[in-house]
Amino acid sequence: AQTVTQSQPEMSVQEAETVTLSCTYDTSESDYYLFWYKQPPSRQMILVIRQEAYKQQNATENRFSVNFQKAAKSFSLKISDSQLGDAAMYFCAYRSPNFGNEKLTFGTGTRLTIIP
Amino acid sequence: GAGVSQSPSNKVTEKGKDVELRCDPISGHTALYWYRQSLGQGLEFLIYFQGNSAPDKSGLPSDRFSAERTGGSVSTLTIQRTQQEDSAVYLCASSLDFGNTIYFGEGSWLTVV
What we know:
Chain A is mainly beta.
Protein backbone atom coordinates (compact mmCIF):
# COMPACT_ATOMS: atom_id res chain seq x y z
CA ALA A 1 0.00 0.00 0.00
CA GLN A 2 1.11 3.51 -0.71
CA THR A 3 1.79 5.99 2.06
CA VAL A 4 2.19 9.76 1.98
CA THR A 5 4.09 11.68 4.66
CA GLN A 6 3.98 15.39 5.39
CA SER A 7 6.46 16.09 8.17
CA GLN A 8 5.56 19.73 8.74
CA PRO A 9 2.27 20.06 10.67
CA GLU A 10 2.52 23.85 10.56
CA MET A 11 4.42 26.42 8.55
CA SER A 12 4.36 30.18 8.44
CA VAL A 13 5.69 32.69 5.94
CA GLN A 14 5.82 36.43 5.60
CA GLU A 15 3.55 37.88 2.96
CA ALA A 16 5.33 38.17 -0.43
CA GLU A 17 8.01 35.67 0.61
CA THR A 18 8.53 32.12 -0.64
CA VAL A 19 7.71 28.95 1.28
CA THR A 20 8.27 25.27 0.55
CA LEU A 21 6.05 22.49 1.87
CA SER A 22 7.51 18.99 2.03
CA CYS A 23 5.97 15.69 1.01
CA THR A 24 7.43 12.22 0.69
CA TYR A 25 5.70 9.04 -0.38
CA ASP A 26 6.31 5.36 -0.55
CA THR A 27 5.31 3.19 -3.50
CA SER A 28 6.49 0.24 -5.54
CA GLU A 29 4.78 1.52 -8.66
CA SER A 30 6.78 3.16 -11.43
CA ASP A 31 4.01 5.33 -12.76
CA TYR A 32 1.53 7.33 -10.70
CA TYR A 33 0.05 10.77 -10.13
CA LEU A 34 0.83 13.26 -7.38
CA PHE A 35 -1.29 16.19 -6.28
CA TRP A 36 -1.30 19.13 -3.93
CA TYR A 37 -4.69 20.18 -2.63
CA LYS A 38 -5.52 23.30 -0.63
CA GLN A 39 -8.26 23.33 2.00
CA PRO A 40 -9.25 26.80 3.24
CA PRO A 41 -11.61 27.28 6.21
CA SER A 42 -14.53 26.83 3.81
CA ARG A 43 -13.57 23.11 3.84
CA GLN A 44 -13.60 22.60 0.08
CA MET A 45 -10.55 20.81 -1.24
CA ILE A 46 -9.12 22.79 -4.15
CA LEU A 47 -6.60 21.32 -6.57
CA VAL A 48 -3.41 23.38 -6.59
CA ILE A 49 -1.15 21.38 -8.86
CA ARG A 50 -0.77 17.94 -10.43
CA GLN A 51 2.29 15.95 -11.51
CA GLU A 52 2.48 12.77 -13.59
CA ALA A 53 5.40 10.61 -12.51
CA TYR A 54 6.45 9.82 -16.08
CA LYS A 55 7.06 13.51 -16.75
CA GLN A 56 10.51 14.71 -15.76
CA GLN A 57 9.58 18.37 -15.97
CA ASN A 58 8.30 19.88 -12.76
CA ALA A 59 4.72 21.16 -12.91
CA THR A 60 4.04 24.86 -12.42
CA GLU A 61 0.83 26.84 -11.99
CA ASN A 62 1.41 30.58 -11.70
CA ARG A 63 2.97 31.13 -8.23
CA PHE A 64 2.90 27.42 -7.40
CA SER A 65 5.57 24.97 -8.50
CA VAL A 66 6.77 21.56 -7.44
CA ASN A 67 10.14 19.93 -7.00
CA PHE A 68 9.53 16.33 -8.01
CA GLN A 69 12.40 13.97 -7.16
CA LYS A 70 11.27 10.53 -8.31
CA ALA A 71 14.26 8.59 -7.07
CA ALA A 72 13.97 10.18 -3.64
CA LYS A 73 10.16 9.87 -3.70
CA SER A 74 9.85 13.51 -2.80
CA PHE A 75 7.25 16.00 -4.01
CA SER A 76 7.58 19.45 -2.44
CA LEU A 77 5.40 22.47 -3.17
CA LYS A 78 6.89 25.93 -3.53
CA ILE A 79 4.66 28.96 -3.16
CA SER A 80 6.23 32.18 -4.42
CA ASP A 81 5.11 35.70 -3.53
CA SER A 82 2.87 34.38 -0.76
CA GLN A 83 -0.51 36.06 -0.41
CA LEU A 84 -2.97 36.22 2.47
CA GLY A 85 -5.36 34.06 0.46
CA ASP A 86 -2.82 31.24 0.45
CA ALA A 87 -3.49 30.59 4.13
CA ALA A 88 -4.98 27.09 4.35
CA MET A 89 -4.29 23.44 5.02
CA TYR A 90 -2.26 21.88 2.24
CA PHE A 91 -2.51 18.17 1.51
CA CYS A 92 -0.20 16.09 -0.63
CA ALA A 93 -1.88 13.13 -2.33
CA TYR A 94 -0.90 10.05 -4.33
CA ARG A 95 -2.98 8.26 -6.94
CA SER A 96 -2.20 4.91 -8.52
CA PRO A 97 -2.52 4.54 -12.29
CA ASN A 98 -3.96 1.06 -11.94
CA PHE A 99 -7.61 0.51 -12.76
CA GLY A 100 -9.53 -0.41 -9.66
CA ASN A 101 -7.09 1.38 -7.37
CA GLU A 102 -7.75 4.99 -8.26
CA LYS A 103 -8.43 6.38 -4.80
CA LEU A 104 -6.31 9.25 -3.52
CA THR A 105 -4.05 8.57 -0.54
CA PHE A 106 -3.48 11.73 1.47
CA GLY A 107 -0.84 12.97 3.83
CA THR A 108 -1.82 14.46 7.17
CA GLY A 109 -1.54 18.02 5.92
CA THR A 110 0.44 21.18 6.61
CA ARG A 111 -1.27 24.25 8.01
CA LEU A 112 0.16 27.34 6.31
CA THR A 113 -0.12 30.72 7.98
CA ILE A 114 0.65 33.94 6.12
CA ILE A 115 2.04 36.75 8.25
CA PRO A 116 1.02 40.22 7.00
CA GLY B 1 -23.93 20.89 -12.26
CA ALA B 2 -20.94 23.19 -12.06
CA GLY B 3 -19.35 21.36 -9.17
CA VAL B 4 -19.78 18.50 -6.76
CA SER B 5 -22.81 19.22 -4.61
CA GLN B 6 -23.31 17.78 -1.13
CA SER B 7 -26.23 17.93 1.28
CA PRO B 8 -26.84 18.62 4.03
CA SER B 9 -24.03 21.07 4.67
CA ASN B 10 -24.35 20.53 8.40
CA LYS B 11 -26.18 17.83 10.36
CA VAL B 12 -26.57 17.38 14.08
CA THR B 13 -28.01 14.04 15.13
CA GLU B 14 -28.55 12.13 18.31
CA LYS B 15 -26.47 9.09 19.07
CA GLY B 16 -28.16 5.95 17.77
CA LYS B 17 -30.03 7.66 14.94
CA ASP B 18 -29.45 6.90 11.25
CA VAL B 19 -28.25 9.62 8.87
CA GLU B 20 -28.08 9.92 5.11
CA LEU B 21 -25.62 12.16 3.30
CA ARG B 22 -26.11 12.96 -0.35
CA CYS B 23 -23.63 13.67 -3.13
CA ASP B 24 -24.39 14.91 -6.61
CA PRO B 25 -21.22 14.61 -8.73
CA ILE B 26 -20.19 16.76 -11.65
CA SER B 27 -22.28 15.85 -14.67
CA GLY B 28 -20.66 13.13 -16.74
CA HIS B 29 -18.17 12.07 -14.10
CA THR B 30 -18.02 8.29 -13.87
CA ALA B 31 -15.96 7.98 -10.70
CA LEU B 32 -17.27 8.98 -7.28
CA TYR B 33 -15.50 8.87 -3.91
CA TRP B 34 -16.39 9.34 -0.26
CA TYR B 35 -13.80 10.45 2.27
CA ARG B 36 -14.03 11.24 5.97
CA GLN B 37 -12.08 13.98 7.69
CA SER B 38 -12.10 14.04 11.47
CA LEU B 39 -11.28 17.30 13.28
CA GLY B 40 -7.71 18.34 12.56
CA GLN B 41 -6.97 15.11 10.73
CA GLY B 42 -6.21 14.07 7.19
CA LEU B 43 -8.60 12.44 4.79
CA GLU B 44 -9.64 8.84 5.27
CA PHE B 45 -10.88 6.94 2.21
CA LEU B 46 -14.29 5.29 2.66
CA ILE B 47 -15.66 4.02 -0.66
CA TYR B 48 -15.20 4.41 -4.41
CA PHE B 49 -17.58 3.89 -7.34
CA GLN B 50 -16.43 3.62 -10.95
CA GLY B 51 -19.06 3.26 -13.64
CA ASN B 52 -20.83 -0.08 -13.45
CA SER B 53 -18.01 -1.84 -11.64
CA ALA B 54 -18.43 -3.21 -8.14
CA PRO B 55 -17.57 -0.46 -5.64
CA ASP B 56 -14.36 -0.51 -3.62
CA LYS B 57 -15.68 -0.62 -0.06
CA SER B 58 -12.34 -1.32 1.56
CA GLY B 59 -12.34 1.92 3.56
CA LEU B 60 -15.69 1.59 5.29
CA PRO B 61 -14.91 1.49 9.03
CA SER B 62 -17.77 -0.76 10.09
CA ASP B 63 -20.94 -2.43 8.84
CA ARG B 64 -22.90 0.58 10.10
CA PHE B 65 -21.62 2.42 7.04
CA SER B 66 -23.00 1.82 3.56
CA ALA B 67 -23.25 3.72 0.31
CA GLU B 68 -25.06 3.39 -2.94
CA ARG B 69 -24.97 5.14 -6.25
CA THR B 70 -28.14 5.22 -8.27
CA GLY B 71 -28.13 5.47 -12.03
CA GLY B 72 -24.41 6.11 -12.09
CA SER B 73 -24.93 9.60 -10.71
CA VAL B 74 -26.17 10.62 -7.26
CA SER B 75 -24.72 8.78 -4.26
CA THR B 76 -25.99 8.40 -0.71
CA LEU B 77 -23.79 7.54 2.26
CA THR B 78 -25.78 6.03 5.11
CA ILE B 79 -24.57 5.73 8.68
CA GLN B 80 -26.75 3.57 10.91
CA ARG B 81 -26.90 3.82 14.70
CA THR B 82 -24.54 6.78 14.75
CA GLN B 83 -21.84 7.01 17.40
CA GLN B 84 -19.98 10.06 18.67
CA GLU B 85 -16.81 8.94 16.91
CA ASP B 86 -18.69 9.28 13.61
CA SER B 87 -18.58 13.06 14.04
CA ALA B 88 -16.54 14.37 11.12
CA VAL B 89 -16.72 16.09 7.76
CA TYR B 90 -17.76 13.71 5.02
CA LEU B 91 -16.33 14.75 1.66
CA CYS B 92 -17.55 13.54 -1.69
CA ALA B 93 -15.47 13.79 -4.86
CA SER B 94 -15.79 12.86 -8.51
CA SER B 95 -13.63 12.53 -11.59
CA LEU B 96 -14.30 12.31 -15.28
CA ASP B 97 -12.60 9.00 -15.79
CA PHE B 98 -9.73 6.88 -14.73
CA GLY B 99 -6.57 8.92 -14.26
CA ASN B 100 -8.23 12.30 -14.27
CA THR B 101 -8.17 14.93 -11.56
CA ILE B 102 -10.53 14.39 -8.64
CA TYR B 103 -12.79 17.31 -7.69
CA PHE B 104 -14.27 17.69 -4.22
CA GLY B 105 -17.51 19.02 -2.81
CA GLU B 106 -17.69 21.27 0.24
CA GLY B 107 -18.51 18.39 2.55
CA SER B 108 -21.21 17.50 5.04
CA TRP B 109 -20.32 18.29 8.64
CA LEU B 110 -21.84 15.61 10.88
CA THR B 111 -22.06 16.08 14.62
CA VAL B 112 -23.33 13.24 16.78
CA VAL B 113 -24.48 14.33 20.25
